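assembly run, all chains below
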Amino acid sequence: MTSLPRHETPKKLGLVIDLDVCVGCHACVVACKEWNTGGYGATLSDQQPYGADVSGAWLNRVHGYEVMPDNSDGVVIGEAGEARVVHFPKSCLHCEDAPCVTVCPTGASYKREEDGIVLVDEDKCIGCGLCAWSCPYGAREMDLAAGVMKKCTLCIDRIYNETLEEVDRVPSCVRTCPTNARHFGDLADPTSEVSQMVAERGGFDLMPEQGTRPVNKYLPPRPRTPLSACAQPAVEDTADAAGFFGWVDRMLDRI
Amino acid sequence: MSRLSAEALSQPVGDTVRKTTCYMCACRCGINVHIRDGKVRYIEGNRGHPVNRGVLCAKGSAGIMQHYAPARLSAPLLRTGPRGSGQFKTISWDQALALATEWLGEVRRDDPKKLAFFTGRDQSQSLTSFWSQQFGTPNYAAHGGFCSVNMAAAGIMTIGGAFWEFGAPDWDRTKLFVLFGVAEDHDSNPIKIGISKLKKRGARFVSVNPVRTGYSAIADNWIGIRPGTDGLLILAVIHELLKARRIDIDYLVRYTNAAWLVIDAPGTSDHGLFARDDDGKALIFESVTERVVPESTKGARPALSGRFELADGRSAVPVFQLLADKYLDPQYAPEAVAAETGVDAATIRGLAAEIGRVAFEEAIEIFERWTDMNGEEHSSFVGRPVSFHAMRGISAHSNGFQTARALHLLQVLIGAIDCPGGFRFEPPYPKPLAAHPRPHGKAEHFGSNQPLAGPHLGFPLGPEDLLVDDEGNPARLDKAFSWDAPIAAHGLMHMVIANAHAGDPYPVDVLFMYMANMAWNSAMNSAGTIRMLEDKDPETGEYRIPKIIYSDAYASEMVAYADLVLPDTTYLERHDCISLLDRPISEPDSVNDAIRWPVVEPDRDVRGFQSVLLDLGARLRLPGFADNRGQPLYRDYADYIVNHERRPGIGPLAGFRGSDGERTGRGAANAEQLERYVENGSFFSVHIPPKAQFFKHANRAYQDFAVSMGFFDTPQPVTFQLYSEPLQKFRLSAEGLREPVAPEEHRERIRSAFTPLPEWYRPLEEAAVDRETYPYHAITQRPMAMYHSWGSMNAWLRQIHTRNRLQVPGAICDAHGLETGDWAWVISHHGRIKVEVERTEAVNPLTMWTWNAIGKRKGSWGLAKDAPEAERGFLLNHLIHELLPPKGDGRRWSNSDPVTGQAAWYDLRVRIEKAEPGERSEPQFGDIEPTTAERPDEIRYGEEWNR
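ok done. output:
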């Protein structure tokens, strides 16, 4: 068993992911792989990369779900009866009550006291997989080549990397996201941009019933108005051509 | 307590950063390539780059795996086994180039038209077209004919530009954005950035697409239209806008041919053409003095309606009168089109109302003094903040040309072209139709050992510009610019192999292709195309297409069909130039171009294709490539980029010209030009002055800027062509009223498709097959993480799309007893495929769809033969014939738009039947013997850098 920090961490670094604009392009998925395979800890290896049963370790994946809104709760996220596709990026949520930490038999899994980032000390990891089993989000993946557990580090070797320009000290997924659906910041600070975004947009926890208190938040799709609600009668009801050209002539006089 | 030292977390990314241009798709973003120990450590977007502003998509970030893919070719290859076997021997570049020179030299001497040179996913058309012109064959084009020529041609003929490379929505100001069809694969990062911006502002985003994936998934409103009916929907919106008086009369009078008089003299050769004065200037009716005067007469108040007598006694009516009479007709009312489009009338009415409301009630104004081409001063730019975008979705139908025309007509009617918040041109566009060249390729345009008399591609202004002989037979192999496809501005690459195989209109000797997977996903009727490539003349034992030269960087399916393979480099190993002479990357506020340069050195015996083409040009002693002693004019492509001049002072790159590198647009060659580009992040950008940024088609300051930049030598303002006179000329020929008269068998198609005002007609395949027998549509969508076929050799991208399934609407599943995971036969008039099914509701109820080009042939792309791409992946191409079903007139018509020859990929009609469970998709083909390196069983990329 490994302990979580005894006190609330002074910083809660995490991601805010905007489901209103995520188009499921996978830019974040690949940028994450690309950065982290040559970064912190073991590579993110790929098995049978050109073969039948290709697989690999990824720290961030995008899932697509088809949902059928019924709008009965008054929240219009689509036209009722019309299926929507929701793209849902998912990586470690850096939970405050992270079961993956407390379940770790060797102390490899830990939550940093200073910023709340959940990490794996790969020197201590024995690859038992208990943490992945305990994570309700399926956010950890075993690297089959190194036999250690891999997970999102919030690009810890970017965010504190003084060789990078300050603007680039954000996770790789955030820097690359073409729709600006991913935001990084301190969710313990109510004045931070990410906290304000969560407050304004009704950011929510993923599966709060699990009691994990995730730091990462998701922003729901913005409400939408059906086009049919915009239909209005013609400005003038002279539908015949004579009436129309009369109007055109009046418009010409005004030029 | 931290277990990680600050030092451990502060490691430099790499040894060096090299900035170049991405080539993982056609978007052409700026990238920072971090190099460590001579290897690519990390690729990220360049924050300073005008295209992507620092972001990068999945493909771009996966560039590492593209660059190191085992599917890379490694040396020139000469075929040893039968075509399609994949059996080759490695030869030297000297041998390869000598052989190519021998083959090409014989053709050039004996009959230059027997070379067909077509390029696929190519961004060097300025060079390839110049090369083929100097070679002298009439048979050259790039791949626009099977891509989006409908969009390009309709746009240029209507507004002097089109979407994507010609213009973009004003993302920072638009308040309503309407996207038609699939657009995920072109201009992808700018569109993603733009959609995000407008959603953040609360602007409405409407997507019109049978399929709700990708961008449609986040649209405020999704209109799940039936494929091929977009034009009808647009005309219904126009009907509503006219009825509601939501049109910009001032804009129409100033910038369009709305007031031009159309001759009404049925049965004569001038019927439907513009009344013109002796100088050829179109006439209008001036309603104050009640006289017919030339258009743009100062102070004239033009009539937009009425019937007027011309000096010769004939009568004429303004374009706008014809337009309003046509589209106010109840046949375009929302109720009348609802059943055909599958869109209910209330939604159509709501869309029209929103367009009208936003355009006129939320108009925006930018206070900036500017002067129009008539010398009139304006104190501001008035914007109608409604913008549109479309690409292949509307383009790849046989009614796509007219649909794209209809969309531009809609934009013009509300005054939303090149205004704040609307669609805005990107330099060097707009460019009027007449400023484009006429096509060249008739018999008198070429001959033994001489260049073609002019450019291959361009725009005919009427039937007199067609490339046909006296009997009306096509001059070009692909029949572009013939009566089959009169305005085939990009050629018909999809007809090249079929026509060459059939010897119709004539056989060729050498087929030369670059980056075009014509033996697989780039061909309609892939199985038939494979047979044509393999087919031999029984009398001679020779292949019917005798010699095939192909260049590609990867072991695509087409490589196996080449006789001689010229291996290209990866995009990180080459020089390239993203030129204003070619397919530009400008933005509405800036003129941009860019380069690629070798940020890593090739470790194989490969050469950049453009350098190889220059070498071949010199060996063939083509003018412009070799001097009169036969010495090469250019060392390689880098040398050409810097020193080639198309016109004096105008070269491939606009930036850092002149001996001191301080000239922009026009200027002498600068030996340091490429170094200056590299220092600047491998791109060049110059801002358009604020008073020149809008209404570029009629803005004096912009026109002067365009001349100073060298886009034109004189100002080239554009008058938007609501009514198209060139189309009417073709119609008059089809009615037998105007010389040259269209051959009898072509008349009906041309009469119905060449309407001078945009019209909708049912797509040709749908009209030709029994709709009961083939009740459904089947189309592809473009995944954002994969570009055409280039992605399956990439170890990371193929984990995102390893195989594809057919997405089938729930109602169709229920009707046929299908569930997710079942296998089904999908059957068209041409063939059948066996595929795995997945149920979906996020789609038009009559439409099934799948991802494009995930299916691969066994043995290709460096993949194992049991790779899911080959076992379970599939192509719809096997269902799509390059010809329409026979209609009993003894001829087979191309499955293309009758105006432009655009391949009608999305017209496909099918039925579906449950199949026995299976393990593999059908059809399957024989294995190709791999020509590529060993495949590793595991990748631990970056292992040496772990910490």
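The first strand of chain A starts at residue 13 and ends at 18.

The two ends of chain A are 81 Å apart (CA to CA).

not gonna interpret more than that til we talk
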